[in-house]
UniProtKB/TrEMBL annotation:
Compartments reported by the entry: Golgi apparatus
Protein name (database record): Trafficking protein particle complex subunit 10
GO annotation, cellular component aspect: cytosol; TRAPPII protein complex
A GO biological process held by the record: intra-Golgi vesicle-mediated transport
The keyword Lyase belongs to this UniProt entry's keyword annotation: no
Pfam families: DUF7077 (PF23274), TRAPPC10 (PF12584), TRAPPC10_1st (PF23036)
Length: 1185
């Protein structure tokens, strides 16, 4: 079977006279220009889906030159070897000519082609328009001839006649559309009929496989004719499927061990180990198959070549390479069974030559193709596998010819059947191997090395272009091994040291261990210093060693342990020679796990203890200096547990690590570091958000609170004075320690700045301090000492609370070499706990000021005292408290504010330069109760010193109980007794302490007798007023009485005129100092219009001139509109603008405040007496009863 598929044959015929004209030549040329056919849609009767043929080559052949062979061959041929369509072209201008000559010519031709099986025919009537003939007549002429042709020859209701209008526009595709469509239909119809018949023959033959006389080779030729036919129609996938089915049938025959239709497994010829694998013309394969003498080797090669040829037409070049690799490796194992009958190294030579020939053939097929980037990468990777397969055969050649050592990585390519005896066949193989470059390489070492490097680099380039770095690196390793063998140690060392970094991420531990082991050996052979580079090589080797336990080192356990121990000792010596710290991350030889996730307190010193296990996977002891475990807390805080260690034995090593920090809380495992001199093994344990979501939970460690360790708290100053710089109080307690230095740093995430240079230490026995721009340092602190420092900070009025991160670095006198680090996060209130509202009431020479205090939070505030202080008595201001507080402490709640009233006397016109100060002594109820609990627990502990270690637990239990249930608040506010609800002490030491503390809390005590009180000092400005008016409306005894009656004796009746006197007394006592020279002001009064109660007669509105201390009066008449107790109308008094004075382009109106002297008075109005007569209609009497 030829390698190139046949084309579809279409015959043409025409009257001999017409064939000799130029007109026919033009038609033929134009028809040929429409080829190949495109977009054929084949709906096969035996296939469920429509096949689309994008392009189909058609060969036009004269019917005269192609005669039907009367003696048909018994060998199945492609159905395309015979024409699928026969075309007859004729010209006939009128019906008479058709009847006379044309019809007989068509009948003769039709009689010939209609006898041929599986062929279609088509009549083409060519019409050439004549200019002398009218268009209408021409149309009639065409129609009549074509109709007669269809009537004579379309006998089976299938239209096989088409008309071609030949005109100047002959190259227009529309002219040929009908004809091309008919040609497509005819070809597909004939092909479908022939293919269906051939498929039926194949099925019939396959069904007879179990019958005597069935021949696989005959069946193969028959079925292959199907594949060739489909290939000729460009149906490559269908054709390939036929070969896959043939291959499956062959394997089934092979399993049945019925190979009587084949020759031997292989009959090697002189070119079998050299000829291109995919060339189907190198042997008469078809004849050998028909003769039943083809060897299995040749048959498999031919079948592979046909499959690959079809794959190449489909563009599946990657699959071509993959099938070839699979075939070469699997069939080579089959050939190993008869290797003794083959020439020396025939299999290796065949694989080498075949692999490279397939690569060259694929490159030739790929040249006209444009592959996408991802397909090109996969194609290059597949080619790389073929080239590497060829390179592996060079390993076998090299070891046999002693060009290469019989050890990894070269020995990895040796077949299992390889024996030393083959080395004696090298001389013979150099004569029998057909490929000249192989034969020369066997005899000449330099030629071999050059060939080896060339083929290896070719594979590396293909792998690199495909993005297969691991495969390329493996080949780099073999080149490095070759450099070692050739004595090129510097090149080999550079390669071996660079390769493991690429292997490690992919888990190629065996190859990595081998490469690193070779690097160490080469480093020693080259007598290079054991520097940082050597340490990294060794550490990489140890990591790979523990992953596969040195399986590729080919050493016994004893030798392996001694070898590793020697390397570890050398590592120790080299680590001490390092000039700088050298980290090494994530070494697998060591691992750490936490034994107890609850750390223990060190008890005798600040710090905590953590038990860990270090697992050493090396077979020998590993000398180390220190183990460090780092934990991460909130806001990126870190604490470290360390322990000095001398060595790690193989297996488990349990240590207790110490952390000098007393920062309590829950932490996550962050990192581990094991140090050997300046070499640091490091592991990161922190989990990313993505890892946590995937289910990788971080390791948690809980550190308990150490109540005796150094501690720092923040609080508001005990005295807050508005208008002065804001401060925060830093309270440092040394606990059990004598502290040499304690450096405190504060930072607020909100951006508030602390001014350490202005900090001050308060209290007695203040220690010396050092201040700089970043911190404050306390010096020489004693055990149990509390030191308080006030640190000013920037404005924080926009925040109710301020979060502050505290960092304390301190050194104790007992451990001067240890710097402890304490990180805390505290929240301190910056807003005042109370809001203050001020109300002023002027009464003549006196001013009454009422302060209303309300809490700004949900907490209760306890107020002990309030004072309104004058900074200077000489200012003429005298302040007197108006309320004698019955309770010693006032409680302010969200629902109940506190009110405090003060009276102020001042001289007229006396300027108060400085504002008064309102001083409030207070504390929060929570602070009061907590201090009371501390006091009670302290008293209980003093009675039973054994409870000292439980002091904080007792406080926490009592505070938590009070937080949970607020029923104690009311009783405590009244009596001072604190009854703790919900606490049921157990019968143990803690329970006894709680019972005693609760007994102490149940006793009455004054809140002022314990705890610390805070102060707030608020500046209060003394108000000023130009005019104070006291308005009075007084009822007179009679209209003529001008003096005030001591007692009114006459009753008042509704509707009766009532005489009254309006008086307005004005005072300038609280006038501003700058206006004391003003003697009078224009004023206006206005009586309130109470139309529901009173009618006012007289001057109800008027102006008057006000002077200091004088009274303006005016009589009016009131009429009560109804009886009852009625309030008198109010009088409004306002000041009028000062004439001639302007400020800011507006008139000046003096300030004025009016007091209604009669505001609380009511008068009794009686109803008027008299007689009234009413007539009531009682209705008409009912007489029906």
């Amino acid at each position: 079977m030829a390698s190139n598929a046949q084309r579809v044959v279409v015959t043409y015929a025409a009257p001999l006279v017409f064939l000799s004209t130029d007109h026919w030549k033009q038609i033929y040329a134009s028809l040929a220009s429409q080829l190949p056919l495109r977009n054929l849609h084949w709906k096969a009767t035996t296939r469920p889906t429509i096949r689309t043929i994008q392009e189909l080559d058609v060969k036009l052949v004269s019917l005269e030159t192609l005669r039907e062979d009367q003696t048909a061959s018994q060998i199945p041929q492609s159905i395309l070897e015979k024409p699928l369509l026969n075309i007859y072209v004729f010209i006939c201008e009128d019906s008479e000519a058709y009847k006379a000559t044309t019809r007989k010519q068509i009948k003769d031709w039709h009689a010939t082609v209609s006898q041929r099986k599986n062929q279609e025919w088509l009549l083409v009537h060519v019409v050439r328009p004549d200019q002398s003939v009218a268009q209408g007549r021409l149309f009639q002429m065409k129609t009549s001839v074509l109709d007669k042709v269809k009537a004579d020859f379309n006998t089976d209701k299938k239209d096989r006649c088409v008309q071609l209008v030949w005109s100047a526009d002959k190259d227009n595709p529309a002219v040929w559309a009908d004809l091309i469509t008919k040609i497509k239909d005819g070809i597909l119809s004939a092909f479908d009929t022939a293919l269906t018949q051939r498929e039926e023959e194949v099925r019939r033959s396959e069904g007879q496989r179990q019958m005597p006389g069935w021949n696989f080779c005959t069946f193969f030729i028959l079925k292959e004719s199907l594949a060739s036919s489909l290939e000729g129609m460009n149906l490559y996938e269908d054709a390939l499927q036929q070969y896959y089915e043939l291959e499956a049938t062959f394997f089934q025959v092979l399993r049945e061990k019925n190979l009587s239709w084949f020759g031997p497994l292989i009959t090697p010829s002189s070119s079998d180990d050299y000829a291109p694998l995919l060339a189907v013309t190198k042997k008469p394969y078809r004849d050998l198959i028909l003769a039943n003498t083809i060897s299995v080797f040749d048959f498999r090669v031919y079948l592979l070549a046909r499959q690959c040829a079809l794959l190449s037409k489909l563009g599946e070049l990657e699959e071509v390479c993959q099938k070839t690799v699979a075939f070469l490796t699997t069939f080579a194992r089959t050939l190993r069974d008869v290797e003794d009958t083959l020439p020396p190294f025939f299999i290796e030579s065949w694989i080498y030559s075949s692999a490279l020939s397939v690569v060259d053939q694929c490159d030739e097929w790929a040249r006209p193709l444009e592959m996408p980037k991802n397909e090109l990468a996969s194609f290059n990777a597949a080619k790389g596998e073929l080239v590497e397969l060829a390179r592996q055969q060079l390993d076998v050649f090299g070891i046999a010819a002693h060009h290469l050592p019989n050890q990894p990585p070269f020995s990895l390519s040796l077949p299992t059947s390889y024996s030393i005896s083959k080395e004696s066949q090298v001389e013979e193989a150099s004569k029998t191997i057909s490929k000249a470059e192989l034969a020369t390489a066997l005899k000449d070492k330099d030629t071999f090395y050059e060939l080896y490097v060339s083929v290896t680099n070719r594979a590396i380039e293909l792998y690199v272009s495909a993005g297969r770095r691991k495969f390329a690196l493996k080949l780099h390793g073999s080149l490095a091994a070759l450099d070692v063998h050739r004595g090129r140690l510097s090149n080999a060392l550079q390669t071996f040291t660079s390769l493991p970094a690429h292997y490690s991420p992919h888990g190629w531990t065996s190859l990595e261990a081998f490469m690193l082991n070779r690097a160490l050996d080469i480093h020693a052979a080259a007598e290079k210093p054991k520097d940082r580079e050597w340490i990294h090589i060794l550490l990489h080797f140890l990591r790979a060693y523990v992953d596969d336990m040195g399986k590729d080192l080919l050493l016994s356990n004893e030798d392996s342990e001694a070898y590793v121990a020697k390397l570890v000792q050398a590592l120790k010596d080299a680590a001490h020679e390092l000039d700088s710290d050298t980290p090494y991350p994530d070494h697998t030889a060591l691992s750490m796990s936490i034994v107890d996730h609850d750390a223990k307190l060190a008890e005798t010193r600040d710090g905590s203890l953590l038990k860990v296990i270090i697992y050493n996977r090396l077979p020998c002891e590993l000398p180390v200096d220190e183990v460090e475990v780092q934990l991460a807390g909130r806001e990126n805080s870190r604490i470290s547990f360390t322990e000095k260690v001398s060595q790690l034995v193989p297996g488990k090593n349990e240590f207790t690590l110490f952390c000098p920090s007393s920062s309590a809380g829950t932490y996550t495992l962050f990192s581990t570091e094991i140090s050997l001199a300046r070499l640091h093994f490091q592991w990161k344990h922190a989990k990313t958000t993505k890892q946590i979501r995937a289910g990788s939970v971080p390791t948690l460690v809980r550190i308990p609170r150490d109540t005796k360790a150094l501690d720092v708290r923040l609080k508001q100053p005990s005295r807050i004075e508005l208008g002065t710089p804001s401060r925060v109080m830093v309270v440092l307690w040394t606990g059990r320690n004598d502290v040499a230095t304690a450096r405190v740093q504060l930072s607020a995430p909100s951006g508030i700045q602390f001014r350490y240079q202005e900090a001050e230490v308060t209290g007695e026995d203040a220690p010396p301090i050092r201040k700089d721009d970043e911190s404050i340092t306390f010096l020489d602190l004693k055990q149990g000492q509390t030191v308080v420092a006030a640190v000013p900070h920037s404005d924080a009025s926009s925040y109710h609370f301020m979060r502050v991160n505290i960092t304390v670095d301190y050194v104790t006198t007992s451990e001067p070499d240890v710097t402890r680090n304490l990180r805390l996060s505290r929240v301190v209130a910056t807003a005042l706990p109370v809001a203050i509202n001020v109300e002023d009431f002027f009464r003549g020479t006196r001013l009454f000021t009422r302060f209303t205090l309300s809490t700004t939070t949900h907490q209760h505030v306890r107020v002990r005292s309030t004072h309104l202080l004058s900074p200077n008595e000489a200012d003429g201001v005298k302040v007197t408290s108006c309320l004698a507080q019955k309770p010693s402490v006032v409680t302010i709640t969200p629902a109940q504010p506190g009110r405090f009233l003060f009276q102020m006397d001042a001289n007229r016109g006396q300027a108060v330069r400085d504002p008064l100060k309102l001083q409030i002594s207070y504390r929060m109820l929570r602070e009061e109760v907590e201090s009371l609990i501390e006091l009670a627990v302290g008293e209980a502990v003093s009675e039973t010193p054994a409870l000292e270690r439980l002091r904080q637990d007792m406080v926490d239990i009592l505070v938590k109980a009070l937080e949970t249930d607020a029923s104690w608040v009311e009783l405590y506010g009244v009596t001072g007794e604190l009854v703790v609800p919900g606490v049921k002490p157990d019968e143990d030491e803690l329970g006894a302490g709680l019972r005693r503390a609760m007994e102490i809390l149940n006793t009455r005590r004054s809140p002022a007798s314990y705890g610390e009180w805070r102060e707030i000092v608020i500046p209060v400005d003394v108000p000023q007023m130009h005019i104070l008016a006291a308005a009075r409306l007084e009822i007179l005894e009679n209209p003529f009485s001008h003096a005030k009656s001591q007692k009114r004796t006459r009753p008042l009746y509704a509707g009766q005129p009532i005489s009254a006197l309006l008086t307005v007394t004005t005072s300038f006592h609280w006038t501003p100092p700058e206006d004391t020279q003003v003697e009078s002001y224009a004023m206006r009064y206005d009586i309130e219009d109470l139309t529901q109660d009173w009618l006012v007669s007289g001057r109800k509105r008027g102006d008057f001139v006000a002077k200091d201390g004088e009274t303006f009066s005016v009589p009016i008449t009131l009429i009560a509109l109804h009886h009852g107790e009625l309030a008198l109308p109010k009088v409004g008094v306002t000041a009028l603008p000062i004439p001639g004075e302007h400020r800011m382009r507006s008139t000046v109106i003096p300030g004025c405040e009016t007091h209604q002297v009669h505001g609380a008075e009511k008068v009794l109005v009686l109803p008027r007496g008299g007689r009234s007569t009413f007539v009531v209609n009682m209705g008409v009497a009912n007489t029906s009863m």
